[in-house]
Design goal:
Layout lengths: L7 H4 L3 H12 L4 H8 L3 H20 L4 H11 L5 H14 L6
Length: 101
């Protein structure tokens, strides 16, 4: 598929996220089977899926405000702690005259 045909939310995913999606689809959505393929527990795969869902939702919000989407993406990928992310977003919204979270 040509890059320009990819939806915006997908272009923000890392290669390992795309690989996870592929394994998940080929396993017919069985988290148990995916856990076996990765050699990890079901809760570990469930957490990975939950984070991927968050990344996709954030990717959909990017058009609305790229700065906030970037902060959320950093928090989801554990590159920024959640409390700091909330603080940065709240302060940013104050500068724009928007209500806080």
């Amino acid at each position: 598929m040509a890059l320009e045909l990819l939806p915006d939310w997908m272009t923000n995913l890392e290669e390992e996220d795309v690989a996870f999606i592929k394994k998940f689809i080929l396993a017919s959505g069985s988290l148990k089977e995916v856990a076996g393929q990765y050699g990890v527990t079901y809760p570990t795969v469930r957490l990975r899926l939950d984070r991927l869902i968050q990344k996709i939702r954030i990717g959909e919000d990017t058009a609305a405000d790229p700065y906030i989407a970037t902060i959320k993406r950093l928090a989801v990928s554990d590159r920024l702690d959640f409390d700091t992310a909330k603080l940065l977003i709240a302060e940013y919204k104050k500068t724009k005259g928007e209500p806080p979270l």
